[in-house]
Inverse folding.
């Protein structure tokens, strides 16, 4: 991460961090500039204030370390403990800007290297092609909404990741559970009876099918849960064909969950 940011990259990053609706507040910007030992340019629009601080610092030091530090401090999840709704929109905006610099902010607020984005039109084309192919396959509508250009600026990985997250969200909505990952699957789809059953659970074959479905969902979560915490996965060179197959699998899971029922618990 030793190279300098280009001017357009700095403008995009500052625009994301200083977004009028979803960005940092002026007091937050002031504290972060002070924390990172930058020069505060004073009163102006938020995005211009951040950009001027970034540009002056990088030009003077010929180094972007303090800018990266600003981003890390700004994206610490603990900062948003009282306003958790702010974190993900800001992270999404910031990652769209960082994609062109080959960087990504993880769910844990960490900065990591990622495959460098090319162009927004290319991302839009990818999204349109992926959506068209999946519509032809008859993929579940809850999966199609993840075929968005902003998720495909670097590769197809993030569209699949977000689609897998939607499975956990649906299970939580259906059951009222608050768990995640394997713990969520175990509580919702295992047990005798499970909270969600994909069949009548009368025969040995049906009980085996229920167990297999739980293993399928557990495997999907294990493959994609918190992937950015693992260096190898964030650089997974996922192709369009990979994404289509995986999104079709997520579609199957969604359909089985939609058709599932909650057996009476005695």
């Amino acid at each position: 991460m030793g190279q300098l940011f280009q001017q357009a990259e700095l403008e995009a990053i500052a625009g994301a961090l200083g977004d009028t609706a979803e960005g940092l507040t002026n007091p937050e910007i002031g504290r972060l500039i002070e924390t990172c030992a930058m020069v505060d340019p004073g009163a102006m629009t938020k995005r211009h204030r951040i950009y001027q601080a970034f540009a002056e610092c990088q030009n003077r030091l010929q180094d972007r370390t303090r800018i990266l530090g600003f981003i890390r401090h700004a994206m610490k999840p603990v900062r948003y403990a009282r306003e958790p709704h702010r974190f993900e929109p800001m992270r999404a905006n910031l990652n769209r800007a960082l994609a062109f610099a080959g960087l990504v902010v993880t769910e844990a607020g960490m900065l990591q290297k990622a495959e460098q984005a090319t162009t927004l039109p290319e991302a839009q084309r990818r999204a349109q092609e992926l959506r068209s192919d999946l519509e032809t396959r008859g993929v579940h509508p809850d999966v199609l909404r993840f075929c968005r250009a902003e998720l495909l600026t670097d590769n197809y990985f993030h569209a699949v990741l977000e689609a897998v997250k939607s499975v956990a969200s649906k299970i939580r909505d259906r059951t009222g559970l608050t768990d995640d990952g394997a713990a969520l699957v175990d509580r919702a789809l295992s047990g005798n009876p499970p909270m969600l059953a994909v069949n009548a659970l009368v025969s040995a074959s049906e009980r085996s099918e229920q167990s297999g479905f739980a293993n399928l969902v557990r495997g999907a979560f294990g493959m994609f849960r918190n992937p950015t915490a693992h260096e190898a996965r964030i650089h997974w060179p996922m192709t369009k064909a990979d994404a289509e197959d995986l999104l079709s699998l997520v579609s199957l899971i969604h359909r089985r969950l939609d058709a599932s029922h909650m057996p009476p618990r005695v």
Residues 169 and 180 are 9 Å apart (CA to CA). Confidence is low (pLDDT under 50) at residues 228-233.
